[in-house]
DNA sequence: AAGTGGTCTAGACCACCGG
DNA sequence: CGGTGGTCTAGACCACTTC
């Protein structure tokens, strides 16, 4: 008879809802527009608010929606492409780097970091905090761990300010010759401090990019960068060994 | 006067629960061990089951837990590192490729794909389905779009089998010289077909890796690969260095 | 103060897996 | 079959933003 549905695979309501909403977003809404509130939407679709929220959560995960407490739910713009490793052989802080130094303190890193850096378990390393914004929006927060041996000529760090201290460490890093770097991307959830920096709630999905920099055949720095997963698409440009820097929008400097 | 701070910033219960559970996982459980069921756990912590589930969901998102309907919740092993772009200048299907061809059909791709390939809106392209397994576990499903112009010498595709047809197309691809490739990584949720392939429920979080291959200064192929976000850490290695396993979790036993 | 999304509850039923 | 996680409900209150 009615082959409409339920034949053999009862699709969950929230899944069907998501499909309907996706189509509505594609056809009837434009970027930035605010949706009806959750209670109204739930009533309109004849489901409990929790069920509607399950659908909205997925759409937010996919970057289609943006929800803000006290404000409402808006249609999100397409994810922005954020370049990673544009320059294959560049240290953090090199010219062209789009990160913004915030702070720098000596700290004993957690065990996993110390292992990755091959430093002693109680050895302090320069811990640089940086943030990255695109179009005025925060997209990433980073913790950069730099062993003291990587920046030996940094004895008298009389610091005018936290940011200046960070810049000094990064500047010192450029003196080393970068041999290679390894990166990894994985899914995570924002810690409380990162969440604040990224203007999201704790637990928000993030893409964690871990990069280990090598010099003198030893790890010379470790970067742990957390990107907003809802708004970012991480892009990699691999030139197959050939230099293809034919950038039409090259900026003179 | 004593307005200095809000003494009580009520941390959400599920957030606190997550912290407690994380510590318990680190100290009292070993990989593969099954946790008490959700109803018991909720009772033990004095919260509703939905609240407990919110914590479990985050832990699963972070790759700490694995939940299977009808079975239970188990402690997940550390995420496996899955290499991307190991060989900077290699086509899909090149020697050393770890993908397994499944099928190949001529299809008219969706608009976004046609645009990326610079093919006509109604032009059919070879659509190759591949899967990738590590240690016997499925980790990724891929759709590979290859315009006919990229594999011109494929007139008589008398196909012994679907997989053989796919291999034939990939073999033909090797004749082109790969100039470069662009990749992007973003968060998504598994479509129904991908979910089945990845042995997950629809909507499961996945890392979508989109790669565009260039030859003769034109797009020659487009790959859309969806990786299980819960079990995979995507790794990028510069210049054939050996990757080193970085264990994000400390285990005591 | 009003309205929004975020959290939480205490139930219920369903789909799936194993013995 | 019993036990598991997955879905769903109809409420309630809270935190936040805006007016």
Query: Percent helix among the residues of chain A?
Result: 10-25%
User: How many strand elements of chain A?
Assistant: 10
Number of helices of chain A: 6
Query: Shape of chain A from CA axes?
Result: elongated
**Ranges of chain A with pLDDT <50 over ≥5 residues?**
1-7, 241-253
Note the quaternary state here: homodimer
Structure description:
The structure is a homodimer of 253-residue chains. Chain A has 253 residues and is of the alpha+beta class. Chain A contains six helices and ten strands. Chain A has helices at residues 13-28, 38-45, 49-61, 111-117, 162-173, 192-198, and strands spanning 65-68, 72-75, 80-84, 99-107, 125-134, 137-147, 180-189, 205-215, 218-228, 232-239. Chain A starts with 12 loop residues before the first helix and ends in a 14-residue tail after the last strand. The model of chain A is unreliable at 1-7 and 241-253 (pLDDT under 50). The A-B interface holds A 15, 18, 58, 61-63, 79, 81, 85, 88, 111-112, 115-116, 180-189, 202-203, 205, 207, 210, 212, 214, 229-230, 232-242, 244 and B 15, 18, 58, 61-63, 79, 81, 85, 88-89, 178-189, 202-203, 205, 207, 229-230, 232-239, 241, 243-244, 246-250. Chain A binds a DNA duplex (19 and 19 nucleotides) through α3.
């Amino acid at each position: 008879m009615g082959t409409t549905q339920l034949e053999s695979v009862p699709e969950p309501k929230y899944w069907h809802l998501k499909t309907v909403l996706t189509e509505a977003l594609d056809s009837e809404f434009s970027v930035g527009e605010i949706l009806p509130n959750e209670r109204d939407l739930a009533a309109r679709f004849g489901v409990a608010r929790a069920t509607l929220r399950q659908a909205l959560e997925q759409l937010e995960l996919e970057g289609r929606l943006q929800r803000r407490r006290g404000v409402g739910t808006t249609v999100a713009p397409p994810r922005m492409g954020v370049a990673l490793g544009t320059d294959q052989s560049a240290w953090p802080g090199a010219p062209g780097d789009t990160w913004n130094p915030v702070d720098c303190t000596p700290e004993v890193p957690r065990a996993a970091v110390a292992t990755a850096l091959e430093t002693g378990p109680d050895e302090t390393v320069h811990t640089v905090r940086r943030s990255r914004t695109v179009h005025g929006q925060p997209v990433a927060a980073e913790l950069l761990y730099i062993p003291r041996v990587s920046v030996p000529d940094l004895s008298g760090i009389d610091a005018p300010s936290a940011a200046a201290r960070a810049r000094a460490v990064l500047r010192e890093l450029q003196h080393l010759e970068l041999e290679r770097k390894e990166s990894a991307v994985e899914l995570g959830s924002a810690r409380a401090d990162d969440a604040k920096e990224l203007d999201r709630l704790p637990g928000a999905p993030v893409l964690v990019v871990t990069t280990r920099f090598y010099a003198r055949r030893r790890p010379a720095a470790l970067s742990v960068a957390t990107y907003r997963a809802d708004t970012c698409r991480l892009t990699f440009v691999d030139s197959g060994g050939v230099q293809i820097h034919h950038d039409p929008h090259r900026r003179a400097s």
